[in-house]
User: Fold Glyoxalase family protein from Mameliella alba.
Amino acid sequence: MSQPDEIRKIQTQGVHHITLTGADRQTSIDFWEGVLGMPFIFDQPNLDNPDEGHLYFDPGDGRLITIFTNETRTPDPARTPTDPGCVHHLAFNVSQASFWQAAKRLEARGIKHSGPKDRGFMDSIYFTDPMGLLIELASYRFEPPEGCRHADVMIEAHRIRVARGDHHIDREHLADAIELLVERRHQSLSADRGAKNPY
Assistant:
């Protein structure tokens, strides 16, 4: 009698791309490159639908945002569905320098937005694309230590927050997580690496 195959994970290694249904070609280029600054890097037909185009944009990390276009579709600013299983929003990373210019630059185009939102570990601002999809511009309030990722800091900050019974991650949790990661991952000749007051 044969044994069933062992159940194993399929290990992901990052987001490869996200594909959205857009309106016409020019609206897509004007928004993704002309508003969000994503270089337009690749253009071909939708290989599953010859009536559509397939545009590729670089969101800044070498991954891809792709858009299916059709010249018969027009922008519809009504909010996209948020039912279970639907995409609620897409968040894109921006620097603090860019984040604090975002509201002014959206307003120059007449784009309504949420204004800056304090998320404890990051700052956020929300607005919709021409198709009604909610877009978030998110900016971390910290840089991870050398050799660490933002996710490494976040999981340590979460553990610290939970241990202290705090409501959400904030700057102090992040600072303590960064200190912990440096102590754990970076060597020192000192026998005692505790905090000191030399004054």
Observations:
- The longest strand covers residues 49-57.
- The chain has three domains: 16-75, 87-141, 150-185.
- The domain at 16-75 is CATH 3.10.180.10 (2,3-Dihydroxybiphenyl 1,2-Dioxygenase; domain 1).
